[in-house]
Amino acid sequence: MSSSGSAARSAFVEANGIRLHTMQAGEGPLVLFLHGFPQFWYAWRHQLAEFSRDHHVVAPDLRGYNLSDKPAGVDAYKARHIVADIRDLARQLNGGAPFTLVAHDWGGAVAWNLASVAPELLSRLVILNSPHPYTFWRELVHNPAQQQASEYMLKLRAPQAEARLAENGYARLWKFAFGETSPAFTDADRAAYIEAWAQPGALTGSLNWYRASPLVPPSAEDPGAARLQLEAKDFIVRVPTLVIHGERDIALLTGLLDGLEQCVPQLRIERLPEASHWVMEEYPARVNRLIRDFIAPL
User: Fold this and answer.
1) For 204-221, b where at least 16 C-beta lie within 10 A, e where not — what string?
2) What is the DSSP string of 234-245?
3) 169: left (phi over 0), alpha (psi -120 to 50) or beta
4) Do 111 and 41 form a contact (C-beta atoms < 8 A)?
5) Distance between first and last Cα of the chain
6) What's phi and psi for 155, nearest 5 deg?
7) Is 278 helix (H, G, I), strand (E, B) or coil?
8) Pairing of strands 56-60, 18-25
């Protein structure tokens, strides 16, 4: 972390019956950061440095990742369990007071869910390149372009995914995740990610998020998300929400933003045409400024 914020410290927190590893820094109002696949707390290193200047910042390794517990079995990675992890973690960190939740990718899936079922817990919600569950379902069912863009999910659900991604020192996983945006990452960043991926059980734990989710594209054998019948009214988020979306995301297309205001009445969308899926690591200064402006006291 840079010298602009306080140094982050590692801490383990018992939450929802498991042990979550967190990185924490600073004092003040709580800002909780949730990463996605195939990342870990480190994805937020630039944000921890910035916001620890005047906030208590916490970035956990979500269940299955890096140093956090990795429960056995696919069912342990269903949304309700992970939402319960974060709800309990926040209660322990903040005593039930409202806080700011910032989330990316799979972390965003957890955040959307939490904001929908327990809006009283959040003062602000910030989502980076993570689809709202209703619009994701809609696009997976009706938009062939999004279906094609999401086909990688089927490969990550396959039994042989761990072996393939771990080949040659995780070279395939690195290329899959960050190959398009490698200039944003240093050799030290790559080493940190590989160390996290190599933690015992971490690759299976992170892939089980995909295996547990019903929101997947169709295949020749399975209709995928079309098995479900979702309605927008059941996924309303009544929290002031900022969505930051890198438009060069090849997996999550911009059609996912269409009609989002139907589900999120207090919505602000910031599109970054030059950014990819990894927006907070590619353009940390811009992302930090957008978040700070959004969560600043009125």
Assistant:
1) bbbbbbbbbbebbbbeee
2) GG---S-EEEEE
3) left
4) no
5) 29
6) -70, -35
7) coil
8) antiparallel
Strand order in the sheet with 99-104: 9-15, 18-25, 56-60, 30-34, 99-104, 122-128, 241-246, 267-272
Cα–Cα distance, 145 to 136 (Å, whole number) = 12
**Exposure pattern of 80-102 as b/e (b: 16+ CB <10 Å)?**
ebbbebbbbbbeebbeeebbbbb
The torsion defined by the Cα of 167, 169, 170 and 176, in degrees rounded to 10, comes to -90
Residue with tokens 């089980």: 208
Phi then psi for 241, rounded to 5 degrees?
A: -130, 135
List residues bridging with 32 in a β-sheet.
58, 101
Residue 262's alpha-carbon distances to 160, 185, 186, 235, in angstroms, are 39, 36, 40, 10
Domains and CATH numbers, the chain: 9-295 (3.40.50.1820)
Q: For 92-114, write each residue's pLDDT tens digit.
A: 999 999 999 999 999 999 999 99
Asked whether the beta carbons of 270 and 145 are under 8 A apart, the reply is no
Instruction: Give yes or no for a contact between 10 and 23, defined as CB atoms under 8 angstroms apart.
Output: yes
Q: Count other Cβ atoms within 10 Å, centred on residue 107.
A: 28
Residue positions counted in the chain: 298
Q: What are the E-state strand segments in 93-219?
A: 99-104, 122-128
Report if pTM > 0.85: yes
Q: Count Cβ atoms below 10 Å from residue 293 Cβ, excluding itself.
A: 11
Q: Which of 3-7, 103-107, 117-121, 174-178 has the lowest mean pLDDT?
A: 3-7
* Catalytic positions, written as ranges: 105, 210, 277
